[in-house]
Amino acid sequence: MRQGAVASTLSKGLGVAAAPGLHPTTPSELSSLTVIAFFVACAALGGVILVLQLVLGVVGGDHADHNAHGHLDDGLDLMSVRSLSAATAFFGVAGAGALTSGWPLILALGVAIVSGLAAMVSVAYLMRMMRSFESDGSEKIESALGQTATVYLRIPGERAGAGKVHVPMQGRTVEFQAVTPGGELPSGSIVVVRDIVGPDTVEVVSQSAGELIDGIL
Fold first, then answer.
1. SS3 of 166, please?
2. What are phi and psi of 202, to 5 degrees?
3. I want to staple 178 with a disulfide (CB 3.0 to 4.6 A). Which of 25, 37, 154, 165 is the partner?
4. Taking a C-beta distance cutoff of 8 angstroms, is the pair 182, 213 a contact?
5. What's the rounded Cα separation, in Å, for the pair 180 and 167?
6. Strand spans (E) along 71-179
């Protein structure tokens, strides 16, 4: 009331009519604006870090996130860079959205915290699933070593190119790219996996050559 009276007095003294509904910014409004600015800053910070992590993952720096705090193979890595940045971003977005929608500060803060925790757990769970898939893939190709396979797509000789083989493993057929140090292997040939040369590529030799090598060794 006193601020309104002062504003009215100043307006009259200057000969300017006060605009209807226009009042000086109150301390509570300043406080709300400060909190909104804080939420927006959190959203921006978390979002920028998430984008940087995505870029690093694309160019091959994805391991940096795994090593930031270490992780348990059987648990959730809630303290990884991605989990924390996702929590920060969603905390900010949810809090700013709630406040600008007119929600009370205490309720907006609660929504922000719940959203941040949910984002943290979700990202940690997704990362664990991705690591599990990577681990399964590594174990799968290692299990192919020494197995008999069938050439599905012709394999050029002397490592001149890659073909494809089907390897029966654990009751199902798995397809891998394959190279051979020997002569060309046509489709339908029976081969033996002799080495692992890449994450999805094996080295094979004809079954007869493999049996000869085993006999020599």
1. strand
2. -120, 160
3. 165
4. no
5. 15
6. 148-153, 163-169, 172-179
Describe the crossing of helices 27-59 and 105-143 by its angle, rounded to 10 degrees.
10
Contact assessment for residue 163 and residue 155, using Cβ atoms and an 8 Å cutoff: yes
Cβ 206 vs Cβ 191: under 8 Å:
yes
Alpha-carbon separation of residue 29 from 24, 110, 179 (angstroms): 10, 20, 70
What is the distance between the alpha carbons of residues 41 and 144, in angstroms, rounded to a whole number? 51
- pLDDT tens for 179-192 read 999 899 999 999 99
Give the pLDDT confidence score for residue 136 in this predicted structure.
54
Q: Which amino acid is at 70?
A: G
| Alpha-carbon separation of residue 106 from 12, 33, 109, 110, 113 (angstroms) | 40, 15, 5, 6, 11
213's tokens: 């090598």
pLDDT tier at 5, thresholds 50, 70, 90? very low
Q: Does the reported pTM lie above 0.70? A: no
Backbone angles phi, psi at 201, to 5 degrees: -130, 135
